[in-house]
Amino acid sequence: MKNYIKHMDTSLIPIKVPIIISSTKVYINVENKVTLDSYATAIKHITRKVFLKKYILISKSKKLFLRGSIRKSITYSEPIYKNGDKIEGKIKNKTIYVPFNCVTDVDYIVNPEIQKRSLSTLVTISKSGTKKKILSESYNEVAPIYCEIVDANFKELNIKEDIEPYINNSPNIHIFKTITQQTTICLTIRLIQNQEIFINNITKL
């Protein structure tokens, strides 16, 4: 029967892995006006999705600048007058993109790695007395920081702007074409950067 001996090497191995350097909630307030393609009797449903177009982290001041847009797909009912006093609805859809930008403070779970530069000047004097300046520069390469959306929650108020009766003999049915939307978005975001960590080197003999 063979004997198996387990051996642990306590030396460390460097590896690069994605590290969550910050996780925070961002509140964004946006107001926009929408003109539908036709008159509507009701808004049936609105789906929303957030897209980040640009993000910049000022690491020393812990400021995160965000720019993006909200895609809104608005489903509404268009009235169709048929058969005397009978009114039917036709479902229609309009998609819009609402831009936003904001700045927020962030706290670090792990400090981000930032690029460091150093400049040095060397002055040499030749036998003839001529001075020469030699400039040198060095810097370290760091991985970029990525921003991802973990979760997005919306609270929205839709205000009908141009309400009017659909037909004179149906005072209870009103139509509109323009709405003002007041939206509050709560984004949960993460900042991620590939960083070097050290793990134990464990081998089996």
TrEMBL record:
Protein name: DUF7852 domain-containing protein
Organism superkingdom: Bacteria
Boundaries of every DUF7852 domain copy: 9-59
